Amino acid sequence: MAEKPEDLPSGAGEVAKAYPEVWKAFSALGKACSEGGPLDGRTARLVKLALAAGALSEGAVHSHSRRAIGEGLSKEELKHVALLAIPTLGFPQAVKVLTWIEDITDPSPGRPEAPGD
What we know:
69% of the residues lie in helices and 0% in strands. By secondary structure, it is mainly α.
């Protein structure tokens, strides 16, 4: 969470630049939450992706998918999160989440790459 404002997607980056003290506090909270329990980084990233999916936040799903890929998680692991959402969120919502994950994992000519969220 200690990203620099210029490394963030457009909306978050603009807020971080305009309100650096808020961003600093938000980053510190994220770090404290990540370090506050026994989950390893890989598990925590999958949980964060699942929470973003449950909130039906396309931007957060994109962000956590990007971070997960950057941290070495496989696209199959990320897609499994969407499949696990089917019984809880329902098939249509889980498919929506799967397509958001695939915006990051499987960009193709027919699928526009996700914009900065």
